[in-house]
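Hey, sorry to bother you again with one of my protein questions. A protein chain has come my way and I'm curious about its shape. It would help a lot if you went through both lines with me. I owe you a coffee for this, so here goes:
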Amino acid sequence: MKLNKEIVIALIIMIATSALYRVLPGRPFGFAPQIAIALFSGSLFVKNKHFAFLLPLVSMFLSDLMYQLLYVNHLSPIQGFYDGQWQNYLLIAATAVFGFGLQTNRVDKFVGNFIAAPTVYFLISNFMVWASFGGYQRPLTTTGLMQTMVDGLPFYGYSLAGTFVFGAVMFGGFILIQPKLKAIKVKS
């Protein structure tokens, strides 16, 4: 895919919008666009993989920065930056790999990857919480691991829903705007 000004503008708007969405009050935790952004980035930037991994990170950083600003100004109880956060950044960036196979119009590929990416994220992130105690104390036993996984199920459900909703908006929106982008003449 050739990277041109219109696509860059569309992606910047999408990232900014999704970062703003993530900080809205009352939104269920886990219902966020970051995994969908990673899938979308992976599908768009198969040849320029650095963009595929970078865009989800930029989105997360912007939303975490907004969280931090709200937190510092006593407008939110949620910190934007915290210990161990790099693990979430790494996992979100890694989910872009699931987008590399989405250059097809096959619904089964989309459904499979829209389920696989949040599932892998859920399993690995909950394992890391359990293994590091990350402020969330469960015994380092099989029972403790299973309890950590069970405790995370509400987040997982919302993560799946968010991936499908935001994935549909991003992929569908991009399909709808592509003809308009091609029709725009760019002045040099």
